[in-house]
Every structure is written in C-alpha cells, then in structure tokens.
C-alpha cells in the first residue's frame, strides 16, 4: 500500500489547484483522475465552448455594424477545422497540466477511485490493475455530470447532452435547447450563429432563470432579433428520438421537432460509486457531499467544487481547492469565505453578475433598491455596433449587494464589478476610483451613480 499525505480524487480545476499548492508546501500528493486531466471545464465544458463562441464572435460584431449600415459582408466558419483546433488545444493543455504537476512531485494515477475508509482509497487503474492508497487527508473533487429528467434522458442519437453537443459531427439544421441556463444559452448562441434554427425551452418564467426577471426578459427580446425563439413558463413532458429527429412534447400540448435536441437542465454530482460514506461523509438528498464551514466532509475528508453543491462553477472549485490546500498546510485556519462569486454567460450577448440578484436581496430582508445604466449611452458599446442591454446595481440597506449586466462584451466587466463590490465603492468612496475613458467599465460608474428605484416583492 502506497502512503501519501493527501490523496485527491478528481483532476479538474479544484483538484489540480489543491495538488499544486500542497506539493509546493512539501506534502506528498497523489491525484487520481478517471478521465482527462482538467476535468469537465477543460475537456468538455468551459474551454471548448469558449473556443466555439470565439470563432463566431465576429459574426455578432458584423451583425451589429450591418444594422448601423456601416459595414457588410460574410464570415464563414470552417466547423471541421474549428473542431480540430479545439481538440489540439484541449489535448495540449491537459498534457501541460500533467507535466506541471509531475514536476512539482505530484503522483498522478489514471483510474477510478473509491474510498474504502476514512484514510484509504482503492483505485481501479486504467491498465486493469488495482492500487491501494493510504492517505492522511482525502480531497473529493470529482465534479459533476449532465443531469436529466425522467422521459428526457439523452439517447445520444438526436437527443444529446452537452458533451455530445460539443462533438456533434455537423451543424444541425435545427436545434431544440431544453434549459436556458449558461450551458443552454451558450450552445444556442453558437449553433444559431452557425445557421441552426434554434428554439430554447425553459420551464421557469424567463430565460436565465437564476437572474432577475428584467435580465431574462430583455435577453429574450434581444435573442429574438437574432432569430432564436424562446419559450418560457412551460414544462416539457417528454423528449425522444423519432424517425431520426428530436421530438419535444410540452405540457400545453405543443410538439416541437428538430434535427437535434440538447438537454441542459443542470448538473448532478459524481458521487455514485465513490464510497464517500465509507470515508465518513454524509450525502445530501441530491447526492452532494455535505461539508462544514471549512469544507470538511469528515474528520479526514474535504469535498470541493461541484461535488459539494455550493457553487457549480470552475473558478469556485479552484478557489475552494486553494483554500483547502492552505487549510491542510495550516496557513489558513479561518472558515472558508468565497466572497461575492462572479458568474458569466458568454456569447454574442453576455450576462455578468457578482453578488446578489434583487430577488435574493429581498429574501435577505431590508430595503432593496436598484439603479441602472443603459449601454446605449456608452461609447465603446456603440463602437462595437451593438449597444443593447444595461448594467444594474442592487443595493441592500444602502450598501452594494450585487452588480449585473446584460449586453455585448459585458463579461469583461466582471473583475471590476467584483472589486467595486468588495471595496464598497459608492458615494464618496467612489471619488478615489478612476474609470478610464472610453471603456465599457464606465457603464459600471454610470449605474452606480444612477437614480435608485425601491424594489418590493
């Protein structure tokens, strides 16, 4: 049996980050990964999706300039060449990650890990063998996978999950997207830009259901101008392949048919067969690993990233991984504090948010106000040809509680928004914060100083 100070299960952003910090801190570390290093984010999530969207971004810019009658033309994207570029980039980045961790002294094991005790892990290795590992500490960082509802399970024929969709061999003539969260919206944006007739179906009252209604409603209006159809407030009852086509039935009796359908209704944690309970962990109702204020799931076990269900974002997993590594090294003994978590939806139209929505702020109590600035008044937004959208600030008890934005390129505001929120830059404090001109960042300044409207439930 091989003995390590720390055994990490999962080589995604959280596990890889923790491994690097622990190794530099002098700990012996084994990292077990059943797939490709880098996890969902690198291999079949954030990174491939952004490479797709990057290829079609010029189409969105041209569309805006055409509306202003200052430019015209065609941009053709070679889909096959794009897929090959993505494969090369992902493979190279994964290999570089492995090399960097190995140079730090991390032992990387390919295989499926199962906890067999509070300090023991058994690995069914990729070569068909088995290894037993003794660990002073275990970090569960196994991530999540696409979720599905009964009657709407991907069959990998015409009904696909997000991994299937990233690797579909040709652009479908038509596409149904079930679920209007980040994954669904980004896939809809790309395939619409590539020529697919896209219909988004969301059971919630508006698109982007984790955002405030004004964001989702404005998004629907703007997407409609690009040719994407949005259907909201109606549940799907079944989705299946019939005669080679995807057929979606809605509870109001409507039926929609398309060449392909994407099921993008959320994520489920990879805790099946993990043996977390054998390590002393407790699983919550949806299978997420319960953790305490220090992200500990048991006296010798931590759980980070998607698998604990706190925030299903790659940068949240990485942030948690860094914290847990410091906690093991005893350089950070305070409870875990994420701060305001930044989130973005990418594409020709983007959504950015840091902190609370107005709805969340109301739920927390206290007077809530909102101030807004339209991007129409921003020179950089106008220069790009598409100045639709807005920046919105949520105030609670007179303090900054959240900042959100919708529009072209607003993901670039996320770090500035986070710093403004963390520093509570408003009122007189904003006098010490200089905004460059002309920049999209100035829309943040305008929203902070805009008149506030009281919001009620």
From TrEMBL:
Keywords: Disulfide bond, FAD, Flavoprotein, NAD, Nucleotide-binding, Oxidoreductase, Redox-active center. Residues 4-321 form the FAD/NAD(P)-binding domain. NAD(+) binds at residues 179-186, 202, 266. This is Dihydrolipoyl dehydrogenase. The active site is at residue 437. Its cofactor is FAD. Residues 341-447 form the Pyridine nucleotide-disulphide oxidoreductase dimerisation domain. The keyword Acyltransferase does not apply. The keyword Mitochondrion does not apply. Disulfide bonds join 41-46. The lineage of its organism: Bacteria, Pseudomonadati, Thermodesulfobacteriota, Desulfovibrionia, Desulfovibrionales. One of its GO terms (molecular function) is dihydrolipoyl dehydrogenase (NADH) activity. FAD binds at residues 50, 306. Belongs to the class-I pyridine nucleotide-disulfide oxidoreductase family. GO terms for biological process: 2-oxoglutarate metabolic process. InterPro entries: Class-I_Pyr_Nuc-Dis_Oxidored, FAD/NAD-bd_sf, FAD/NAD-binding_dom, FAD/NAD-linked_Rdtase_dimer_sf, Pyr_nuc-diS_OxRdtase, Pyr_nucl-diS_OxRdtase_dimer, Pyr_OxRdtase_I_AS. Binds 1 FAD per subunit.
């Amino acid at each position: 049996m091989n003995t390590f100070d720390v055994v990490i299960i999962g080589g995604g952003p959280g596990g890889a980050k923790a491994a690097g910090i622990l190794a530099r801190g002098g700990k012996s570390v084994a990292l077990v990964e059943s797939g490709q290093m880098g996890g969902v984010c690198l291999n079949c999530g954030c990174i491939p999706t952004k490479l797709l969207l990057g290829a079609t971004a010029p189409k969105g810019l041209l569309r805006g300039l055409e509306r202003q009658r200052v430019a015209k033309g065609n941009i053709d994207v070679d889909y096959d060449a794009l897929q090959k570029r993505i494969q090369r980039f992902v493979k190279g980045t994964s290999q570089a990650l492995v090399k960097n961790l190995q140079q730090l002294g991390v032992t990387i094991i390919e295989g499926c890990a199962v906890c067999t005790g509070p300090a023991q892990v058994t690995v069914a290795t990729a070569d068909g063998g088995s290894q037993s590992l003794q660990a002073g500490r275990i970090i569960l960082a196994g991530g999540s996978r696409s979720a599905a509802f009964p009657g709407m399970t991907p069959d990998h024929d015409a009904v696909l999950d997000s991994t299937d969709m990233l690797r579909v061999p040709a652009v479908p003539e038509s596409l149904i997207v079930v679920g209007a969260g980040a994954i669904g919206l980004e896939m809809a944006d790309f395939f619409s830009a590539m020529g697919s007739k896209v219909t988004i179906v969301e059971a919630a009252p508006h698109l982007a259901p984790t955002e405030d209604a004004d964001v989702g409603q404005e998004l629907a209006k703007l997407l409609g101008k690009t040719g994407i159809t949005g259907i909201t407030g109606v549940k799907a009852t079944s989705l299946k392949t019939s005669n080679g086509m995807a057929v979606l039935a809605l509870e109001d009796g409507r039926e929609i048919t398309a060449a392909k359908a994407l099921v993008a209704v959320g994520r489920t944690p990879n805790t099946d067969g993990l043996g977390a309970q054998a390590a002393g962990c407790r699983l919550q109702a949806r299978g997420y690993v319960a953790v305490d204020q220090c992200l500990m799931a048991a006296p010798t076990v931590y759980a980070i990233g998607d698998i604990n269900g706190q925030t299903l974002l790659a940068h949240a997993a990485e942030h948690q991984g860094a914290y847990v590594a410091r906690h093991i090294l005893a350089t950070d003994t305070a409870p875990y504090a994420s701060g305001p978590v930044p989130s973005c939806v990418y594409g020709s139209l983007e959504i950015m948010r840091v902190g609370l929505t107005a709805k969340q702020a109301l739920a927390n109590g206290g007077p809530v106000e909102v101030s807004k600035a339209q991007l129409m008044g921003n020179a950089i937004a106008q220069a790009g040809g598409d100045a639709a959208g807005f920046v919105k600030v949520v105030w609670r008890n007179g303090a900054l509680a959240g900042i959100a934005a919708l529009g072209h390129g607003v993901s670039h505001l996320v770090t500035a928004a986070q710093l403004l929120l963390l520093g509570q830059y408003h009122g007189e404090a904003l006098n010490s914060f200089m905004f460059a001109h002309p920049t999209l960042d100035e829309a943040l300044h305008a929203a902070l100083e805009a008149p506030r409207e009281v919001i009620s439930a």
